[in-house]
Amino acid sequence: MVAENLVNTERRMLKTMLTNKEHDWSLSEILSECDWSDQAVAVGAGQGLADKGFARITEHATTKVRLAEQGQLGVSEGLLEARLWQWFKATDQPTMANLQQSFAKHEAGPGIGLLKKLGISMNSGVFDCSDYKLVEEALSAREQFLTSLPAELESVDQELLEHFKKRRNFIELVVSTDRTWVLTKRGGKVSADELTETAVINEITPELLQTDNWRNAEFRAFDVTLESSTPRTGRSHPMQSLIERIRHIFLEMGFSELIEDYVQTAGWNMDALFIPQDHPAREMQDTFYLDNPETLALPDSIMETWSEIHQNGGQTGSTGWGGEFSKETSQRGLLRTHTTVNTIQYLADNPTTPCRMFTVDRVFRKEAIDRTHLPEFHQIEGIIMEEGANLQMLVTTLKTFYEKMGYPEVRVRPAYFPYTEPSLEIEVKWRGKWLELGGAGIFRPEVTEPLGIKHPILAWGMGLERLAMLVLGLDDIRQLYISDLEWLRNQPLI
Ligand code: PHE
Predict the structure, then answer these.
(1) From the CA of 460, how far away is ligand 1's center (Å)?
(2) What is the 3-state secondary structure (H, E, C) of the chain?
(3) Pocket residue to mutate for ligand 1, from 401, 417, 419, most atoms within 8 A of Cβ
(4) What class is the 69-169 domain?
């Protein structure tokens, strides 16, 4: 197949040219034979055939004589000298005064000169002609000349050409380059059977890929350098997209999602996690305590357990925090300050079945709003309860998560949380700096034993907005929530 890589227009043109192998094809012949109306299509196809060695282009620069404005009028309304001649023949008294009456000034003036040149003389104010035939021949030659235009310069009567060149705005000369196309030897050898046009494909669809049709199809070429406008369609908020991506990663890693309420008690939010009741983070200035509901009733049994653990460590071997435990404090209603409040309740309900759970949800803290703080933000929380779960496994899990997010450099540092031992801080390297993204650790016996939990529990809680700042390259966390449409539109897909 010699003609394999020809596009459809080239196929059609070559097929046409094969009907007359020796012929030098003009543009108008190609257009009509190929049934095209666009010259650019023909010229493009001809150029393609020439580039591939099937045709040869000959360029001819030609000068054409065309009618200009006065020439067109001369054709449609008759030449002024012809109209004057008609007048002369029809008038009894072809006087100067009569002529000036019959014709407008701008025609009468030059008209006299024209008549004289045709061989009409003037004797004491009266026109006279000795050879009618000569005048009529001259007039019809002029008319014929004009109606034969446009024509090539060489083909027209040179005397009349000179005549009309001297008359203003009758004719104009235009130089144009015409191309003709003739088959090369190679082109002449192509069999017309090879030149069936293939289907042109604009769009790649799953249906197309399922069949084998695409193999022989011609694909429309796209010019990716062309200017285009950005389509403005609806899209998810970048935070929502980020949450979806995180969800996918955890689901992929075998976790199940836990979605729970953010109205909670201080008991589950803090006491269950062995956060001492006089811990500064519990103060009014850090936690949003609720007026309604101001308290939420808790079963006495669970409060008894917490009370013992806090006061003396209960059966766990711990000495506890000492002091007095307040059940009223436990029952205070609040907005959760961390998603760990839901994790611990899930464990209380499911203490023995090994699990992997995660949450990406909203938490609240009384923070002054600034570049890196918001009173309402999200945490990415997770736990693994498994026999033999250990610190190494915790670090590996977190590393895997951040690696999947696109941050392969992760390190941990020792930290402190009342409910984990050991406790870690997780840091990710971004633009050469280590950034703290969250906390992690293994739950302490004071947390797990009263609930009847037997296996170690690896736990972490990380900031979603902090991570979003990295992903979106922000230096101000507030940008995420100010609904700046222009900014939102220009965010990358996450
Ligand atoms: N709850 C902690 C916080 O809010 C994070 C954390 C979760 C730490 C689980 C250890 C284990 O910062």
Answers:
(1) 5
(2) CCCCCCCHHHHHHHHHHCCCCCCCEEHHHHHHHHCCCCHHHHHHHHHHHHHCCCEEEEEEEEEEEEECHHHHHHHHHCCHHHHHHHHHHHCCCCEHHHHHHHCCHHHHHHHHHHHHHCCEEEECCEEEECCHHHHHHHHHHHHHHHHCCCEEHHHCCHHHHHHHHHCCCCEEEEEEEEEEEEECHHHHHCCHHHHCCCCEECCCCHHHHHCCHHHCCEECCCCCCCCCCCCCCCCCCHHHHHHHHHHHHHHHCCCEECCCCCEEEHHHHCHHHCCCCCCHHHCCCCCCECCCCCECCCCHHHHHHHHHHHHHCCCCCCCCCCCCCCHHHHCEEEECCCCHHHHHHHHHHCCCCCEEEEEEEEEECCCCCECCECCEEEEEEEEEECCCCCHHHHHHHHHHHHHHHCCCCEEEEEEEECCEEEEEEEEEEECCEEEEEEEEEEECHHHHHHHCCCCCEEEEEEEHHHHHHHHHCCCCHHHHHCCCHHHHHCCCCC
(3) 417
(4) mainly alpha
Ligand 1 lining (C-beta closer than 6 Å): 338, 340, 417, 420, 439-441, 459-461
Q: What is the pLDDT of residues 107-138, one digit of tens each?
A: 988 888 888 888 898 888 889 998 999 999 99
Ligand 1 atom closest to 460 (CA): 9
- Give the closest residue (by CA) to ligand 1 atom 5: 461
pTM over 0.85: no
- Ligand 1 centre and the CA of 364: distance in Å? 14
Residue 2 — very low, low, confident or very high, per pLDDT cuts 50/70/90? low
Q: Is residue 357's pLDDT more than 60?
A: yes
Q: Is the pLDDT of residue 270 over 60?
A: yes
Say which CATH architecture domain 241-489 belongs to: 2-Layer Sandwich (3.30)
Residue 241 CA to ligand 1 center (angstroms) comes to 24
The pLDDT score that the predictor gives to residue 112 is 85
Q: Ligand 1 centroid to 381 CA: how many Å?
A: 8
Domain boundaries, the chain: 2-62+176-219, 69-169, 241-489
* The pLDDT value given to residue 185: 95
Question: How confident is the model over 151-170, as pLDDT tens digits?
Answer: 999 999 999 999 999 999 99
CATH of 2-62+176-219, picked from 1.25.40.390, 3.10.310.30, 1.10.10.10, 1.10.3720.10, is 1.10.10.10
343 CA: nearest ligand 1 atom:
9
* 440 CA distance to ligand 1 middle (Å): 6
